[in-house]
Amino acid sequence: MKLPDLNLIIALDALLDEGSVIGAARRMNLSPPAMSRTLTRIREQLGDPILVKAGRNMVPTPRALALREDVHQAMENAIRLLQPGSEVDLPSLERTFSLQANDVFISAYGGVLLNRLRQEAPNVRLRFMPESTGDEDSLRDGKVDLYINAQRPLGDDIHVQSLFSTHFMGLAREDHPIFGQEITAERFASYEQISVSRRGRARGPIDTYLAQMGLARTISLVVPTFHSGVFSLGNSDLILPLPEHVVSAVQSMGIKTRAFTLPVTLETISIIQAWHPRFHHDAAHCWFRRIIHGLCR
């Protein structure tokens, strides 16, 4: 009886985790064509397509979803077997993890993450660092343990893992006049708005979409963070577009605002965590990354 190629488990774990051939290829340091050939072998081995096209994206089949946790557990077990000396004593671990994370992650998972860490490693601390333009340099210099932000090109030496996706919604005070009628692109553009940009930019994808319809909005306020934008709404007629994860966090705090679906078509934003190879096999760092990935999933 011919034994199956166990390397396919590694590739299958990467494909299910990344949800794309390109992402899995990057993670395994393979070319996309090579990863595509590996997916073909996996399909033949399992008798299932595993990932299928859905528009521009790929989605897992029911068989793939059923296998996901078993495959991931098999990977973790294999890592533990091959690295018997890499275990970390979590109850006695004393370490500060520095994260360069955006508002979306901090809003949705900051407090939850700290509570989760305390359950296993009560002496671990978190330090959220401000975003900067030198994200890759901060990782290479060891100034931050993890970079968590919207997906963008990073250096070839940087490890990247997908965490979650989010999309933009609109937020305004509860009794804002925009809620009096159907929220069309024309009515949306007619109200003054807040732009969130740590670089001070007032225009973005929303304006590009509106311009295609012959519309333009008025940006009356530019703030550096989503949180400062929320507190700038006050009793004004300003509108604040922001990610759904931040909207959920704002509403869970009881702040008197109301969310609505934007009447514009925007791309979904993929949030990733990235780290330098120096930490890739560090036991405590591996545990930390697994906690974050598990929370976001």
UniProtKB/TrEMBL annotation:
Q: Which domain of life is it from?
A: Bacteria
Q: Which InterPro entries match?
A: LysR-type_TF, LysR_HTH_N, LysR_subst-bd, WH-like_DNA-bd_sf, WH_DNA-bd_sf
Enumerate the spans annotated as HTH lysR-type domain: 4-61
Stored CDD domains: PBP2_DntR_like_1 (cd08460)
Query: Which UniProt keywords are given for this protein, alphabetically ordered?
Result: DNA-binding, Transcription, Transcription regulation
A single GO molecular-function term is: DNA binding
Q: Which SUPFAM superfamilies match?
A: Periplasmic binding protein-like II (SSF53850), Winged helix' DNA-binding domain (SSF46785)
- Family designation: Belongs to the LysR transcriptional regulatory family.
Name of the protein in its database record: LysR family transcriptional regulator
Species classification: Bacteria, Pseudomonadati, Pseudomonadota, Gammaproteobacteria, Enterobacterales
